[in-house]
Amino acid sequence: MKDLSPKSMGEIRMTDKERLKRQELKRAVRPRIASTIVLTHGPKDNPRILMGQRSSRHDFMPSVYVFPGGRVDRGDNYVDYAGELSPRTESILEAAYSPRKARAVVLASVRETYEETSLMLGSRGATSRNINHPSWDAFRQANLKPSLDGIEVFGRAITPPHRHKRFDAWFFQKRLETPELPLIEDSAELLNVGWFTFDEIWNLELQRATQMMLKVLQQYLSHNRPPPHIFFSHARYGKFLTDTFPSR
């Protein structure tokens, strides 16, 4: 596989604040499970992609453009949902987690999309389950169940140990079939939220890891049928590795 590691694209950009926070730690922190989704709209070869700019106040990757996403919460394991994962995505995720946890990882990306852009990825359906979570309560009040339909996994990346915050991030993609671009809004997490083409995205301020996953996304979208494994970036003994998950 072509080298798509952050290291291959140049020195990883870190702020002085990020370096200081890492220096204060005695050892690398354990990665937390996270979930990111790339929503596309329009033709497969030149879609518009939903992204937003992280606030400059963030102590992790400030000011750069990213896809909606964040950490998996405990409540994501128990929310009532609609639809099912594809056999391919289910098989890949369940090579790492239990069936419930696998669904929770995907549902976290749906929740984060709502929290960061106000866009609800759901299907009409009433649910009486209340898990005392403001975002999932918003779905329930809107008479929507978060939907798993059409969401496919295409990558995984674990933050290198030189960062003071680390995530075991899973990357998903979903193509929206609506006639018009869905309405979106800025949030406390993401500013300047918008729908961008690939050409427009490459002119934005991006972190190296996001550049890497954009290239992975372009490769993924070029397949007529997605492969039964995904791109996997991680570090071991100080070296960046790019291979597949599950291993071929």
CATH fold annotation: Nucleoside Triphosphate Pyrophosphohydrolase
How can the largest sheet be summarized? 9 strands, mixed
* End-to-end Cα distance: 12 Å
**Which stretches are poorly predicted, pLDDT < 50 over at least 5 residues?**
5-12
Structural class comes to alpha+beta
Count of spatially separate domains? 1
Radius of gyration: 18 Å
Strand share of the residues?
A: 25-35%
Element-level helix/strand string: HEEEEHHEHEEEEHHEE
Q: Overall 3D geometry?
A: globular
Overall mean pLDDT stands at: 87
- Indicate the CATH class: Alpha Beta
> Helicity level, as a percent range?
10-25%
In the CATH classification, which architecture applies? Alpha-Beta Complex
Number of strands: 11
CATH H-level superfamily: Nucleoside Triphosphate Pyrophosphohydrolase
- What is the count of helical runs? 6
Oligomer: single chain
In a nutshell, what does this entry contain?
With 248 residues, the protein is α+β, with helices and mostly antiparallel strands.
